[in-house]
Every structure is written in structure tokens, then in C-alpha cells.
Design brief:
alpha+beta; Lipocalin; eight-stranded antiparallel barrel; 9 strands; 41% strand; globular
């Protein structure tokens, strides 16, 4: 009987927590929405300036992150994003587009401070979620975005 009561209590707590977590994710998504310029980017601890130079802006809206190229003949790149602002640090997953079914979501972390959004992702299919914003892992990508006004 005690085991059943504990299980029921755990389920009640989990069910009560899920809507709060969903609300936090919706609030975080709304806060991140907007257009950004790509200030800097590094891959495996090395600057990726050519990529920075090729991006006109990055737009976050409706659960999508869209990279808009400067050159109109290049194609926009889009990916879904899933947020968990209750994680420490806040977690983000980059979900590949439906046409890239062979790719797995990329785990990451994010922080938004004073209009600057820092994203750190694992780049490999088997990458672990980063635990900080240094991006010094061999399979990590760091993007620093500045929100447009």
C-alpha cells in the first residue's frame, strides 16, 4: 500500500510539474523570438569567420531557427528548436529538418544576457549536452548572436 501511495504521489508531482515546465518553455521561446546578427562563431574551439561573414541574420520564431544567407542565391537553413529553461544551464535541442532524417537532434545549452544570445551545441550525433559556454570541446559549436532592435 505504501509503494502505491508513493507512486501515486510521484505521478501527481510529475503531472503538476509538466504544465509548469511547458509554460516556462513557452515563455522562454517568446523571449528568444526575433532577428539576430551573428556576432561570432567557433567550431571545435576555432573561429569560423567565413560562416559568420556568409550569414545576413538569424531569425528565431515559432519554434524554428532560420539562418538567412547574405547571398540571395544561397538557400536558407532552418531547424526546429526545443527549449528547457528549467535545466541548469538552460537546454536547447536543434532538431534537423524533416528532409534530413538521417541526422539526430543536437543537444545544446543557451543563455540570453543583455540582448546577446549564446548557443553551444554538440556537433556529432553522439555528442553529450555541453555543460558550459566555453565551447572548447572537440565536437562543440558556439554561436554568439546579438538581437536586432
Amino acid at each position: 500500500m505504501n509503494r502505491f501511495a508513493l507512486t501515486l504521489a510521484a505521478v501527481a508531482v510529475a503531472v503538476g510539474f509538466a504544465p509548469a515546465q511547458d509554460d516556462a518553455a513557452k515563455k522562454a521561446a517568446k523571449e528568444l523570438e526575433g532577428a539576430y546578427t551573428l556576432k561570432s562563431m567557433s567550431m571545435s574551439g576555432k573561429p569560423a569567420q567565413p560562416f559568420v561573414d556568409a550569414i545576413k541574420e538569424i531569425v528565431i520564431k515559432d519554434g524554428q531557427l532560420v539562418m538567412v544567407p547574405k547571398d540571395a542565391k544561397d538557400k536558407e537553413e532552418s531547424m526546429g528548436i526545443k527549449l528547457d529553461p528549467t535545466a541548469k544551464p538552460a537546454a536547447i535541442d536543434a532538431i534537423p529538418p524533416k528532409d534530413k532524417t538521417n541526422e539526430k537532434p543536437k543537444p545544446g545549452v543557451y543563455k540570453l544576457e543583455k540582448g546577446e544570445l549564446t548557443l553551444v551545441f554538440g556537433m556529432e550525433d553522439d555528442s553529450k549536452r555541453p555543460t558550459d559556454f566555453k565551447g572548447d570541446g572537440k565536437d562543440q559549436m558556439v554561436m554568439v548572436l546579438v538581437k536586432k532592435k
